[in-house]
Design goal:
The structure holds two protein chains of two kinds.
Chain A lengths: L2 H12 L3 E4 L6 H7 L5 E4 L3 H15 L3 E5 L3 H5 L1 H9 L4 E7 L15 H4 L6 E3 L7 H13 L5 E7 H5 L21 H13 L3 E5 L2 H4 L3 H11 L3 E3 L14 E4 L6 H9 L2 E5 L5 H4 L10 E6 L13 E4 L2 H8 L3 H4 L13 H11 L4 E4 L3 H9 L8 E2 L10 H11 L5 E6 L10 H7 L4 E6 L4 H10 L15 H7 L4 E4 L5 H10 L4 E6 L23 H10 L1 H5 L5
Parallel strand pairs in A: 1-2, 1-3, 3-4, 4-6, 5-6, 7-8, 7-10, 8-9, 10-11, 11-12, 13-14, 13-15, 15-16, 16-18, 17-18
Chain B lengths: L1 E9 L4 H11 L3 E10 L4 E9 L4 H9 L4 E8 L2
Antiparallel strand pairs in B: 1-3, 1-4, 2-3
Classes of the chains: A alpha/beta, B alpha+beta.
């Protein structure tokens, strides 16, 4: 047995059932060892998609996602997917081949210091120089990836370490992680006291709820306290979208009800959230009258951007369980847009009604915000969205990962005409694996979110956003042997959606939408969340009278 | 504001670079640093002075998260 064969056995023992990757020179011993393995290897068509598919797999399943690439360009292509996992706290183990140890530092063929390149974007990383290190490295890598605040761990594996004799190594065994510390009682007592004294409390939930598996505890806490609740992009689904206490998503494209409730609150109970700038708007003016109770598994997030009056560090579900002791209707979204073209928010709302239990992976841009605003999520692990890094090209690989982690589920990938072309080659993976993913492409022939900002904040000076020479996406899908349909008119929507969703296996729906359709509401950059715009008239006023004020703040 | 850091580190690949990079990325500019192996254990001892407008707590909480950091003490310089 060599090091690579031991590693494959160890991954199997760890319970890894699927890995995503692309072979090459320095990872060939590992790929040789994979033959005959019980693990399913999914051959992607670009290493970035391997990292993003493992990322999507982990987000939905809660298990550690594993991706594999060779040295040099294979490894560097993983970088965006690794960074995405760090910012959204996704547990991953990324295995890269490396040139043999005696060639390291000589600028050998396909040698790249991926260990150094990824230092700022991993939770931890390893470069074992001896096969004897493998048991410790693998044990720690999985433990670190999923413990506390999850994140990506890199194992850069020299080729000679993969080939070294490993018969003497201990038999691989599954790894158990120690539990996270419980919340400290003093914080809980103080938190209960603050809650009792508050008159306008608001519960502010973030992505840490799903990461901690604390959705049930969170819902019990809402039921017990009846607190109005707002959620971040990453937390959507932690409370069902139609729950009476749910005011909507917080932040730049959040609901007016959510933003105003937070601004007027006298107490914010922050659960697994990190005061991200897209959620808070201008931080100095965020919830100015509120005291803050901050519950988080990561001590580094408490007091990082907003001082907490009470901090409760530890497992969120434990903390919430211990603590358990009309705006929405007024500001509801409207779907009666004029005209006969497809209105994307109404289309997404209808899809959500037709497939209420679907897992939805989306890309980045206007369609991402429309999904967040108009899809009725009931479970945070069913909403896969690149929140922290905003990775265009995330959607299709993430959908592949989610479908492979849950083969019986309905998986919908919502993408835009910009994003889809970042990883469109993964249609080949969808076709080869016969994954029944339903891909909905909202095509406005532009980089829509950038176009919207140029319209509102750059005096309508449109620069490098035109995609009017897009290819025929339906033909591309068909070239990969994926059935494709097109939807242009609102009158056809019901029929086409029914036919599209009835297709057995993968399917591609190309939807033409109005280029000038914008995402509303919107909090202008560097403004407080009370200053959100939700009508074209307000936006016009900003664009023509006040634009200079914003230009310096862009693009952030 | 200047802070003095005393850090015990695992003697592992990239440990020093990880600490230095974390401090810089989080907005703490290194002013001086000195590192030595600990003769009693497979570890580094690292003394570092940094300058920042941000709080000492912010840096300590980020360094505490690093797997290689065995112990971190941060105090304002006098």
């Amino acid at each position: 047995m060599n090091g690579a064969e031991w590693l494959v056995k160890a991954l199997e023992a760890e319970g890894v059932d699927t890995l995503f990757g692309y072979p090459g020179g320095c990872i060939m011993p590992f790929y040789d060892a994979l033959l005959g393995s019980t693990m399913k290897h999914v051959l992607v068509r670009h290493e970035q998609a391997a990292a993003l598919a493992a990322n999507g797999y982990a987000r939905h399943s809660g298990r550690v996602g594993v991706c594999v690439a060779t040295s040099g360009p294979g490894a560097s292509n993983l970088v965006t997917g690794i960074a995405d996992a760090l910012l959204d706290s996704v547990p991953m183990v990324c295995i890269t081949g490396q040139v043999p140890t005696h060639l390291m530092g000589t600028d050998a063929f396909q040698e790249l210091d991926v260990f150094g390149m990824t230092l700022p974007i991993v939770k931890h990383s390893y470069l074992p120089r001896s096969v004897d290190e493998l048991p410790t490295v693998l044990h720690e890598a999985f433990d670190i990836a999923r413990s506390g605040r999850p994140g990506p761990v890199l194992i850069d594996l020299p080729k000679d370490v993969q080939l070294a004799k490993a018969d003497h190594l201990p038999a691989p065994a599954p790894i158990t992680s120690p539990p996270v510390v419980n919340a400290v009682p003093v914080g809980l007592v103080d938190a209960l006291s603050l809650i009792a004294r508050s008159k306008k409390p608001v519960l502010y939930g973030g992505g840490g709820i799903a990461i901690a598996g604390a959705t049930k505890a969170f819902r019990r806490f809402v039921a017990a306290t009846k607190m109005p609740t707002v959620l971040t992009l990453r937390a959507l689904g932690a409370l069902p979208f139609d729950h009476p206490q749910f005011l909507g998503m917080l932040g730049m494209h959040g609901s007016r009800a959510a933003n105003l409730a937070v601004q007027e609150s006298d107490l914010l109970v922050v659960v697994g959230a990190r005061f991200d700038d897209r959620a808070t708007g201008k931080l100095a003016e965020f919830a100015p009258h509120a005291k803050v109770i901050h519950l988080d598994a990561d001590l580094g997030e408490i007091n990082k951007l907003r001082r907490a009056d009470v901090s409760v560090h530890g497992r969120i579900d434990h903390s919430l369980n211990a603590l358990c002791a009309e705006r929405v209707a007024k500001h509801a979204a409207r779907y009666d847009a004029p005209g006969s073209d497809i209105y994307a928010p109404a289309l997404l709302k209808r899809l959500s009604e037709l497939k209420p239990d679907a897992i939805v992976a989306c890309d980045v841009g206007q369609h991402q915000m429309w999904v967040a605003q108009h899809w009725g999520f009931k479970d945070p692990t069913h909403h896969l969205s690149s929140a922290g890094l905003g990775t265009m090209g995330f959607g299709l690989p993430a959908a592949i990962g989610a479908q492979l982690s849950n083969p019986g589920a309905t998986v919908v990938c919502v993408s835009g005409d910009g994003s889809i072309q970042m990883n469109i080659q993964e249609l080949a993976t969808v076709a080869r694996e016969r994954l029944p993913i339903k891909i909905v492409l909202l095509d406005n022939q532009a980089l829509g979110m950038v176009r919207q900002w140029q319209e509102l904040f750059f005096h309508e000076r449109y620069s490098a956003v035109d995609l009017s020479d897009n290819p025929d996406f339906g033909l591309i899908a068909q070239a990969y042997r994926i059935p494709a349909m097109r939807l242009d008119a609102r009158a056809d929507q019901e029929r086409v959606l029914a036919e599209f969703l009835a297709i057995d296996g993968p399917a591609f729906l190309h939807v033409a939408i109005d280029q000038k359709a914008n995402v509303w509401p919107l909090v202008p950059p560097n403004k407080s969340n009370t200053e959100m715009l939700d009508a074209p008239a307000q936006a016009d006023a900003i664009a023509h009278a006040d634009a200079k004020e914003f230009v310096h703040a862009l693009p952030t | 504001m200047h802070y003095q850091l005393e850090i015990a580190l695992r003697q592992s690949e990239g440990a020093l670079a990880r600490v230095l990079g974390t401090a810089q990325r989080r907005g703490y500019a290194p002013i001086a640093m000195q590192a030595a192996t600990d003769p009693r254990a497979p570890a580094w001892t690292l003394s570092m002075t940094v300058e920042s407008e941000r709080s000492a707590h912010g840096l300590k909480s980020q360094l505490d998260k690093l797997h290689d950091c065995l112990a971190v003490e941060v105090a304002p310089c006098r």
